[in-house]
Amino acid sequence: MPSTPSQCRRAIFKKLVKLRQANRNTDYSIYRHCKLFLQTLAQEANNGAETDNTNVVEEKHALEKVLHDFQGNARKENYFLF
């Protein structure tokens, strides 16, 4: 147990720094999330293009729906908040 106030503040600071550090799996988690986003975006865009009977995939085919879905997940599951 720290005996002086400066030691107490130092201990609290060390705990806060340790809590705010990213763990080893952070990079992999970001990679997986980005990969899932791109796969979903491509799949929805392809489905939208098939629905419109076009051979060209355009922004309007999936961008809004996929962005809405992933922004909702980011808010609910606290992605990218370290």
Automatic annotation (TrEMBL):
InterPro entries: Histone-fold
Domain of life: Eukaryota
GO MF, any single term: protein heterodimerization activity
Protein name: Uncharacterized protein
